[in-house]
Amino acid sequence: MTTLTVGACLSLSGKHARFGTQARLGLEIWHASNSALDLVIEDDRSDPAVLQVSLRRLSDQCDILLGPYSTQLMRRAGNIATELGRLIWNHGGSGDDVEAAHPEHVVSVLTPTSRYAEPFLRHLAGAEALTVRIVQGKGGFGRQVAAGAEAIARSLGIDTVRLGPGDDLPQSAGDAWALFCAGAFEEDIETIEQARSLPTPPQVVCAVAAGVREFGQALDDPRGVYGVGQWFPGAAGPAELGIGEPDFLAAYRDRAGVLPDYPAVQAAAAATIATHCAAAGGTGRDALWSAATELETTTLFGAFKIDPDTGIQLGHQATLVRWGPDGPAAV
What we know:
- The chain is α/β, with parallel strands linked by helices.
- The chain folds into two domains: 5-111 and 234-318, Response regulator (Rossmann fold), CATH 3.40.50.2300; 115-229, Rossmann fold.
- The chain has helices at 17-32, 48-61, 71-84, 96-100, 118-125, 139-156, 185-196, 215-218, 245-256, 262-281, 285-294, and strands at residues 5-10, 38-43, 64-66, 88-90, 106-108, 131-136, 160-163, 177-182, 204-207, 226-229, 297-299, 302-304, 319-324, 327-330.
- The strands form three sheets. Strands 7-6-8-9-10-13-14 form a seven-stranded mixed beta sheet, with helices on both faces. A five-stranded parallel beta sheet has the order 2-1-3-4-5, sandwiched between helices. A two-stranded antiparallel sheet has the order 11-12.
- The longest helix is centred in the last third of the chain and has 20 residues, at 262-281.
């Protein structure tokens, strides 16, 4: 019997290494419970040019291809998979354009970027009326998160003001306001620090960066800050497929000494779903796509169901957390 080989390009060095190394450990833990499979991981160095070479090499060696971490890199990976006539499993690029760009070639497990802010805004809608200042970071990720936040806030009757990269927060905000940051990790930290130094600081703060545990070391006092992310311990519920969350968390803690953030869990979930689909119908692109479009299930990452026309993730929902004295907790 031929052994199934799963290949992944991950940023083990460069600017995305913080998250790529977590994804690698997540895949290694997944692999430990699937030892009949082979796992090959290459370092894309957070560089699209390196990714292009590495992914083509993996395509020659592997039956299943897992994408890289970051929307920018996954955008390139989707193009390459389409050129090669392959299907790639997207666990690291949540941009709406990335998820929808290559039907029948990209299957995404992530909540699309435009829906990131939804749990925070729904939480805010039930509280005191606040104007939400949405600060987007550089690049497509921040733009899509901010645009989605605007649209969701409008549907909920929440007033918003949108600020672009480099725009100054108002020195005097007048009425009570809330801050929502949608940028890269470092951008969100800088924005929150600036907002807190204003004569009228925000009453409520939420940031994409606050959805990962490293936020607690990057900001002087993270208490009270809300974060949104793809996953948080205890939020996903029971797993119908693959390793369950308690076993995964225990194994991750044993290896790393800390609990994982969502990059590790979403990588393991993508591998779980990909190999399940391969077992159902084979490793050809058509067979994998057909199996994925018919699948509605849960993993340790949460719900999985894709749009059968585009491959966009429909089932999975973002998670809202709030930082307290003992760290973040799901809201």
